[in-house]
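Re-run with default settings, no changes from the original entry. Doing this only to confirm the output is reproducible before filing.
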Amino acid sequence: MKMFYFTDAMCSWCYGFSPVIKKLKENYPNIDLEIVSGGFSPGSKQVVDYEYRDFLEYHWRNVNLRSGQYFDHSMKFVSDTFKYDTEPASRALIVVQKLSPEKDYDFLNLMQKSFYYEGKDITNENILAELSKEIGVDKNSFLENFNSEEIKLKTQQGFEFSKQLGVKGFPTLLTLENGTVKIISNGFQSFDSLKPAVDDWLKNVTVSKLQTGQSCTDTSCGC
């Protein structure tokens, strides 16, 4: 049973949602959760000036109040060259999904913590490569793939996939069955609020499989 999680490492509400995703994975181990970098603001040239800092701090305070996630408001990542471009972090996740796919969730969490908690610039490929080392990915292999045309293309395909399915914001959880998109969650919510929607989806999927996946006669059963 597959569920898609559309997210972005530099989306503050996704950072706030990360403990909810952790509980989802722990409580529903049979759900195949596929993480997709949906592209919050890829290619953005937005600098963090005083006005944009106020904008970020306002949202960060709201996320903290709703989720309890800690933010370092000193924003040590800000520099004369920093742009709020989410493409590099999205591309880094694609690299990890290729080289060490079982670690993609851990790497997403690591990028989020590094950015929001430690103030690291996760638009910088060398910082991203160092983070990949922390989950056991070879730094040179990471950089080689990070700068490859293959990974750049796959990153763009993730952004396009998000648009094709009508994802309007992050975080979003959805399923795709027989060409039909079902939104499980759009935006931040607590695990207790999310759980009934997940349970309802699982119940309907099970009933559907029983009704359409099997057929029996007096002498045999088939799918």
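Helices lie at 12-27, 50-67, 87-99, 104-117, 125-134, 139-146, 149-164, 191-212. Residues 138 and 184 are 36 Å apart (CA to CA).
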